[in-house]
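subagent[fold] <- orchestrator: predict structure for attached chain, return tokens only, no commentary.
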Amino acid sequence: MRIVSADIRVIEAPLKVPFIVSYARYDVMPSVIVTLRTDTGLEGIGEAVPDEHVTGETVESVVAALTQHLLPALRDTDPRNLNQVHERMNTALVANGAAKAALDIACWDLLGKHAGLPVHALLGGRKPEQPMIAKVLSILPPAEVAAQASAAIADGFTHLKMKLGTDTAQDIASVAAVRAAVGPDIRIRVDANQGWQDVSTARRMIAAIEPYDIDWIEQPIAADDLDGFRRLRPHTSAVIMADEAVITTGDLARLIHDESVDMVNLKLMKSGGILPCQRLATQAALGGLAVQIGSMLETSVSSAAGYHLALAHPNIVSTELSGPVAFSDEPGDLHFPLPYVDITDRPGLGVTLDPAALDRLTVSAKELIVE
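subagent[fold] -> orchestrator:
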């Protein structure tokens, strides 16, 4: 089997409400949908959702990486040979995790369709638990975020993730307001997205919100301050999760060596797709760290890819792939019987794209002949 052509579409998926984190606000989420076609007639779909603040990519750079470097590097490569796919991509271009993830995901979809198996079966088989989805709450004034939290619980969510990191006083007030609104039994986790920056601020903030029974605190300090986690660790018993700080095996090895975090948030877009994240999840397990699979607010395509990996890997204990429920329009068809997601046993990713929706959301498109 060989890849003969690729369809590359830049889309913009509108959000039901603006998504606000410490470093940006999004009203629509740009994404690059890739369809790989083979000489056997099979098609595989993948997705790149770049973030210039995390992966260092934009949709323009993803399209350039795909068309000028990565797809030409896969000429005459069997897409079922994932090791060779990644070897050739990494030889052609360093970093560019989201662009590589699009091709990795599409190749897994092809492999599953060729084998007649879902991706989670190819990864070792699914766990018995049904994956759950947390409601992600943007940075808003305390009363507004508390109202959104109450509405989320009414919709069926049982876990909440609060985005923090722009105003420390508001952060504390918001956590208090949400806990008061939802009561003691709903699980809450928080994500500063590097917004508290330094260790002293993180120490103060963690101490202030711990009384509100927080599951874990995600990326409280700057991503490039790996030593900061080591300095923060002795001052709190809270569960600390690294996110933006973990992209490569080297990043993870440093955190394991320092015994400075309890969990890591892996994202296909940061690290280049399913195969690299599978390896990172195993590395984390060997180092005693639990894993969450997160996302950049992705459509059903790469969200499904993340869920397949989470279903199959014993060390992945949490998923935050909430993009499909945040969009008012998207091209995929993942089904979310809240608070769960329905990952089927259909071959490949198990996702079908709606051509009308894809056309409706497309900003630009191009086809590349690979052979």
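orchestrator: received. Logging for downstream: The CA atoms of residues 200 and 232 lie 8 Å apart. The radius of gyration is 20 Å.
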